[in-house]
Automatic annotation (TrEMBL):
Limits of the TonB-dependent receptor plug domain: 143-219
Keyword annotations of the record: Cell outer membrane, Membrane, Receptor, Signal, Transmembrane, Transmembrane beta strand, Transport
Xref: Gene3D superfamilies: Carboxypeptidase-like, regulatory domain, TonB-dependent receptor, beta-barrel domain, TonB-dependent receptor, plug domain
InterPro entries per record: Beta-barrel_TonB_sf, CarboxyPept-like_regulatory, Plug_dom, Plug_dom_sf, TonB-dep_rcpt-like
Name of the protein in question: TonB-dependent receptor
Gene Ontology terms describing biological process: siderophore transmembrane transport
PANTHER family, per the entry: HEMOGLOBIN AND HEMOGLOBIN-HAPTOGLOBIN-BINDING PROTEIN 1-RELATED, TONB-DEPENDENT OUTER MEMBRANE RECEPTOR
Organism: Marivirga aurantiaca
Signal peptide limits: 1-18
Amino acid sequence: MRVFNIAVLIIFFSAAQAFSQKFTVSGYVKEASSGEALIGATVVDANNPSVGQVTNVYGYYSLELGKGKYEVKVSYVGYQSKKIEVDLTQNVSLNFELEEETANLEEVIVSATRKDENVSSVKMSTEKLQIERIKSIPALFGEVDIIKSIQLLPGISSAGEGTTGMFVRGGSSDQNLILLDEATVYNASHLLGFFSVFNPDAIKNVEIYKGGIPAKFGGRISSILDIQMREGNNKKFEASGGIGSISSRLTAEGPLVKGKSSILVSGRRTYADVFLALAKDENIRNNTLYFYDFNAKLNYQLSDKDKIYASGYFGRDKLGFQDLFGFDWGNSTFSLRWNHLFNDKLFLNTTALYSNFDYGFDVNTSGLAYQWKSGLQEYNLKMDFNYYLNNSNTINFGANTIYHVFSPANIESKDSNIRNLGLANDYAVETALYVSDVQEINSKLSMEYGIRYSSFAKIGRDSVSIYENEEPRREENEIGVDVYQPGEIVKYYGGFEPRLGVRYLLNSKNSIKASYNRMRQYLQVATNATAGFPTDRWIPADAYIKPLIGDQVAVGYFRNFSENIWEFSVEGYYKWLQNVVDFLPGEDILLNDKIETAVADGVAWSYGSEFMLRKNYGKTTGWVSYTLAKTERQIDGVASGKPYLARYDKTHDISVVVSHEFNKKLSFSGNWVYATGAAVTFPEGRYIVNGQSVPYYDDSKRNTSRMPDYHRMDLSLNWKMNSSSEKYEHELNFSVYNAYNRKNAFSIEFREVNNQNPSFDSENDGPITSTTPESVKTALFGIIPSITYNFKFTGK
């Protein structure tokens, strides 16, 4: 209730600005050809452009003006602006449909935001990528990948060759909240991390927050990746798709009730298993390797004030080696949303969400046959309000409740003589209340400030071990067990999360921005790997493992050049984390029902600078980004208690992305990346156990070595082919991944090499033989060409 008291105070404080007679122009801005809502469209008084609003994620706006005649102008980059005259003597509902611009060769547009948003917006540490830009970036095997495209932005680095795990400003991969139509996606990878689960044909909007995170978001301490699916064309039927090197995809969309309702379905599947079946070798022919995913979305306008959306995603990977070993994993999400407009100023979105992630093994070998299942589920109910108090204040407030179910492991033996094994399920309830205000103080100063209160209750059924005071948490120090019945609170955590963003305009082309945010994270991954893998075990905060708390400050300078054609920004940040967990050397994770005995907690900190130069307009577009950063941890029991580099620390990270349109039919794209090798612990020596050589690691030297530096160039050529019908479009895309065949290290293995000394051993009457360690680098990919055929059909 304290948060909503603050909301009342904010509304009361700001209402003093609204006593004069005012009227409201409100409505939706949509794309004329499809009826898709346009996010971030600008609605202004044409005679006074400083008075305006932008549309929310559902295309809704609310603009307050005094009594009189006005010319209201709506604009969205890439679309023809539209003006409508209104005579305001009462509140007016005004919807707009914008036609797409036919860009000429000199005005290629790759931004979906207003031209000066880099400078004028209060947002910082936030990046938005247009789907068309993502589709133009060369990719592995020609598979367009949203997450790999995001890794080309400053402050965001990859886990390594061929992986979709991402690290944002020194945070681990599990510290990123990935949302698809507001539902959590816990594992966003296909084929053990080589591709992400997001089919770009079904995606409408992609935005990532690295800092200055709005109060409506919570649950992770490093970043929020907010992805929205397309609604589908409510004017006419369309079908599009593509046939690529390893997969094909198909999307169909169209109206159910023209102008009021639409449906979209989109599917993608690889066909590596088809080629395996053609192999002559039976051992290869009986293997399994493929993934598929399916997206669907339905929306219906019930009235002028009510609209419902239902969307879902289902994806799965299957990998098998003959009948000996099988491995499958997958995600499923479901979102049901109801938009309600109380009046022209108050907008409500109510959402019911479901997320599921699960994986399983199936092993059938001589003497060993079992099936392993693991997973987690999330049930979420949330309400988000937008209150357009006036043109200078947009207040957002809301609440949500999440019920978590964790299923760590359930092992069923196929041998009746061996008992089944399993770890008990964990249960938790997470809640949050928030309120924030985006306020324009004057023509130069704008702020976004808010507060969020989050809480987390670990609940029964549960058993909690009690350990002897001041003794390490070890089984030999256990002195008792507390048993909790279903629904009983095992441990409760909670706290406030303040958020603040400030923008000061030096002039129309320069601004300075600063932000601060505190985040709390109640779930984290138990893993010894760097990237996120399907076998990762998510664990909740409990009686011994505290929630992560992250604080971040950032400051930046933003400058636009040449009529907003060029954007430049530099940001510096410092982030510090509490209750960071790392795993003690040699401890078991996956089958440990007392996970607190395998972990220790401490602190972490990261800091760095990010530089970005981007060109959004013209026949040549792209960007150059550079990140200079450092990430360290200090945890008792790890690295002798001294500070050590995080596994994903990379000092330098550079990305260059370029696109060039030769003409309306032929375009080129390329990117080049360079990164310092990740920190790693190499073995110090070896010892013999039962005749086997076992590497020895000195934990006091954790992550003191580095992998070799990484660099790669990718190239792509897109050719739009002639068509006999205006309703049919098709094109060919030629891509080359790793164009100069760089052998980047995926792993480094140490082995012993025999050396013979020409002198003789007098006792054994033979040459002296010794061994020395030798490192062997394994590269995952060389040069990989690919070709993709894309098509689109538009009906009546």
